[in-house]
Amino acid sequence: MHDQKKLWNKAHEQESIHHYSTQPTSFFEEVNKIIPPASRILELGCGVGNDSIGFAEAQHTLIATDLSEVAINKNKERFKNIPNLNFETLDMSEPLRFHDNEFDAIYARLSLHYFTNEVTRKIFSEIHRVLKPNGYLCFICKSTNDPLYGKGTEIEKDMFEHNGHIRHFFSEEYAKSLLENKFKIEKIESGDEKFYGNNSAFVKSISRAIK
């Protein structure tokens, strides 16, 4: 499989997705309306930081993380004067380096759909561990209805490598299976949206940690 860190470092060096990410996203707007004021948030996969700055400006305290150190270093420089906003490099396939019950919310937009089923389930267990009781998990992933589904080399069920990109496409049923017994689902839905200029299909979920 292609090195995904190298792939994303190159994308951020070339700033190939930056012009699609100049404003906070609609998912940020939705999540910001429901999480408590002054929440402590962990963002998994912050990219160029357009949602990160939205949360910080809404007076939340945010640790924004990404696999790409190029993205993180650019964000640190770009947003160095923004209070309550810290950027860190993080490989979420490894155990999260945070304390139990540390965060009021975890936000993951288009960042949880890159891992095998085994690793994905470990990630969701770690997310549950670092969330406070009743804390929010808010994520959106590409779905099995996406135009790219089935293209390229199959790695395992619903997971493919296409033009160097590895994606694990979620169904609503699969998302529910990741959340069961650990989270109370408040919303789970599928839909269509343009991501980075391309027509895409998604699964979106908002849930609360059961402790």
Secondary-structure map:
Elements: H1 4-14, H2 26-34, E1 40-44, H3 50-57, E2 61-66, H4 69-78, E3 85-89, E4 103-109, H5 117-130, E5 131-142, E6 153-156, E7 159-162, E8 165-168, H6 172-179, E9 183-195, E10 198-209
Parallel strand pairs: 1-2, 1-4, 2-3, 4-5
Antiparallel strand pairs: 5-10, 6-7, 7-8, 9-10
Measured distance between first and last alpha carbons: 37 Å
SS summary, helix count: 6
Strand content: 25-35%
Order of SSEs: HHEHEHEEHEEEEHEE
State the major sheet: 7 strands, mixed
How is this structure best described in words?
This protein has 211 residues and is of the alpha/beta class. It has a single domain (4-12, 25-209), classed as Rossmann fold (3-Layer(aba) Sandwich), CATH 3.40.50.150. It is 28% helix and 34% strand. The strands form two sheets. Strands 3-2-1-4-5-10-9 form a seven-stranded mixed sheet. A three-stranded antiparallel sheet has the order 6-7-8, with no helix packed on it. The longest helix has 14 residues, at 117-130. It is globular and about 45 Å long.
In short:
With 211 residues, this protein is α/β, with parallel strands linked by helices. The protein has helices spanning 4-14, 26-34, 50-57, 69-78, 117-130, 172-179; strands at 40-44, 61-66, 85-89, 103-109, 131-142, 153-156, 159-162, 165-168, 183-195, 198-209. It has a seven-stranded mixed sheet with strand order 3-2-1-4-5-10-9. It has a three-stranded antiparallel sheet with strand order 6-7-8, with no helix packed on it.
